[in-house]
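Hi R.,

Here's the chain you asked about this morning:
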Amino acid sequence: MRMSMGMQARQLQTQKLAPRMIQSMEILQLPTMALQERVEQEMNENPLLEQQENDPLAPDELDEERDKDTRSENEKELVVDNDHDNQEDFERLQNMVSEMPSTFDDSFRRSAGAIADDGDRRHDLMANAVSRPESLNDFLLHQLAEMDIDDDIEQMAERIVSTLDARDGGYLRTPLADLLMSGHTEADIEKAERALKIVQSLEPTGIAARSLSECLLMQINPSFSHYEEMKTLVRDHIVDLAENRLPQIAKATNYSIDLIQTVRDELHGLNPKPGAAFMETYVPNVTPDIILEQDESGEYKVRLDDDRIPSLFISEYYRRRLQDPNATSEEREFIKNKINSAQWLIDSIEQRRSTLTKVSQAIVEHQKRFLDEGPEAIEPLKMQQIADKVGVHVTTVSRAVDDKWIQTPRGILPLKRFFVGGTQTEDGEDVAWDTIRIKLQELIDKEDKSDPHSDEKLVDELKAAGMTVARRTVTKYRKKMGIPSSRQRRDWSLAKKS
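And here is the predicted structure, written out as tokens:
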């Protein structure tokens, strides 16, 4: 093997994205609310950007005409050429002065309405802020504080409480010995056990259990009609109970199948995760980016709900300043750069509006049966199909639908909901996976519970309905739908009678 050092010339073809192209893709990917925040940020950073103050009492048609007047064709096409003297650009800037509203001062300042809007927005955010709910740890510590116990026991109990996690149901997963100092004695272990008993006596019942059996046993009390039977099943047969192996339990306990099922029904009333009630749940505030409406002929038409995005234009003051012979070269350079930045933002927002409208309309046209008839009528759809129809790259479609929501007659749905995979029937017809899942649920709902369908049987039933699906696919979707196996679905009382 020969090794040498030297310089070599090689020709390589690489693809790089310009910063402006990256910004354009970022603007496309933003949902409406995030785009509104982005525009406000850009306006704070770029003094050349101004927004058209719209009259909320004016009709939409007048707003559109005003937008056309204030955002003339010359302004849309304005691009500063840094390699020449920009004489044409200056002339266009001068011509645009007469087209701009005359209600602006010759200095950059925010309007009173914009300042008031900011104040109202901050007030709304403070007024609508969700108060932090009480955590599981705080709830338990408050109960401990009201108890009269020794300080060392209370400290150990607080240490135990600190390890409990609402997301894990409030179970104690850490061995008690690991919560003690190194070199602990048997007496320390006994104190830890006493502290654990105190914690387990707190509400909610079943907290700080070390296993599912212990959690359920802590909730079983003599008031239950089958108190002893419940304890026996939970303590000795919890796995067989979960796997629906009732005959094995009956053989080991001499309980009847009917009694075991009755006890199991009572156990279902217990809480296997008592700490989960304190888990904070995040419910996103969904605002639709697209509104879907039907015209008089019943055709679906999409409309962007982007009224909150202000109409932007370049400040009159800075256009005049650019033509001022007293302006320094540094000022001119600053204004040139800001003009480019402002114009690129304006163009990116316009491109986003156009792309999102075309992509949404194409999606709606493809999934018309879904909108008319419901989820069972949804058709297979890939992003590449929409990309080919609209004439853009598939990554553009991906960015356009990302985190976007559409308001339809069937509710507010994410745009990604309309993209589903599928398979082919024996006749070569495409069938969406959602349709198969609905059919699968229907078959299981109607099955004989004394002899429920195995996954192989479900494959045969789906094939008889014209849907060819592999067994592993049926198993996969059954589990994703939360449907137990055929053995777990079996009703042994019905099986015994048959």
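One quick note: The beta strands are 49-51, 290-294, 300-304, 312-314, 405-408, 411-414, 422-424, 430-432.

Cheers,
M.
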